[in-house]
Design brief:
Length: 352
């Protein structure tokens, strides 16, 4: 499956009393669906997933799935501290029709998170997962920085298709890209090289009322080279993708793309999806100077808002840019008036 492009890891809107505000979530998803982002990530770190109950996570996944445009790749954050809990939520995401599972590194028992533990965890999840698996390494939150060597070893598993690397380490990105270059896989794409997933094929068939040939998941995720004829009016072709490295730090987007990353899952894209996409698009078109110019435009805002003010800052930046951010959940606290003014200053030239 193709993972190229920009993906916002969407926030979870709350009412002032702390309950999930599903209508605002659906409105945000509808708006993201009209932007040039490649897809949407549900239940990422920016979605405050760790603060949600099991039922709320399921309800959020369902709400996003129903509101998203059919041509956007849908990635579900399903990682938990145990393999069995991770698989339970992954199974549910697959039932809803998500395209891939984003599985963060376990971290609570840090001293026990040695290479054999991490390898066994991801291999077990990937062996049993009905969805293609993406590794999610996010050391700023977990305190565990997954070594590039482990990523390279896991990349050989046929159901592990990529990684979101949020450590802001461009050299690590380069090592992972170089270390997985020998992995050859292919993915179905449209005539214009956009992603095609089983859910999209099903949606296309239902939309035009035509029947279609049964499509094996293996043929769409790259573990088989079998040609598939889809009788639904959607013309497809094959694209070589290999193991796909995405990054999670907006301030390193352009240099990471230069190092071989194929895209990014960016908290900053929650408030400024188009500004992030413009960097990706310029790089894709080979205009390095423009990409670096666009990168410099977001650097201060992305670092100070995402890393400095955190999720409360991102949500206020969303409010400022016409999305619904709203309140955070305790123990996170709302921004002060001075902090809100600073966020607005940083976002003044990054309007959508």
């Amino acid at each position: 499956m193709l993972l190229q492009g920009i993906f916002p890891p969407v926030t979870t809107p709350f009412y002032p009393d702390g309950n999930v505000y599903f209508k605002k979530l659906e409105a945000n998803i509808d708006r993201y669906s009209k932007t040039p982002v490649a897809g949407i990530v549900a239940l990422g770190s920016t979605g405050e997933a760790i603060f949600l109950s099991d039922q709320e996570r399921r309800d959020v996944l369902k709400s996003i799935r129903e509101a998203a445009a059919p041509n956007k790749v849908l990635i579900a954050g399903t990682g938990s501290e145990s393999a069995i809990d991770t698989l339970r939520l992954t199974d549910y995401a697959a039932e809803l029709g998500y395209d891939a599972a984003l599985v963060r590194t376990p971290f609570y028992f840090k001293k026990q998170m040695q290479p054999p533990n991490i390898l066994a965890f991801y291999r077990t999840v990937a062996d049993r997962s009905p969805l293609p698996v993406m590794i999610y390494s996010v050391p700023p939150f977990t305190g565990y920085d997954m070594p590039a060597e482990l990523v390279i070893e896991l990349a050989n598993h046929p159901n592990i298709i990529g990684i979101k690397e949020s450590g802001a380490n461009v050299e690590k990105v380069r090592r992972m890209v170089e270390g997985t270059r020998s992995i050859k896989r292919s993915a179905k794409v449209t005539e214009t090289f956009d992603a095609v997933t089983p859910r999209m094929l099903k949606s296309s068939t239902q939309g035009n009322g035509q029947g279609r040939e049964l499509v094996a998941v293996e043929a769409l995720t790259g573990s088989s080279s079998t040609a598939v004829t889809v009788i639904s009016g959607l013309k497809t072709r094959q694209k070589e993708v290999g193991f796909q490295v995405l990054i999670g730090a907006a301030q390193t987007l352009e240099p990471s793309l230069e190092a071989g990353a194929v895209g990014a899952i960016l908290a900053f894209a929650d408030a400024a999806p188009t500004a992030c996409y413009e960097i990706f698009a310029a790089r894709k078109e080979g205009d390095v100077e423009l990409a670096r110019l666009k990168q410099s435009r977001i650097n201060d805002a992305s670092v100070q808002i995402v890393s400095g003010f955190g999720i409360a800052g991102m949500k206020h930046a969303m409010d400022f840019n016409g999305y619904f951010g709203g309140p955070v959940r305790l123990p996170l606290l709302p921004l002060t008036a001075d902090a809100k003014a600073e966020v607005e200053r940083l976002m003044a030239d990054i309007r959508n």
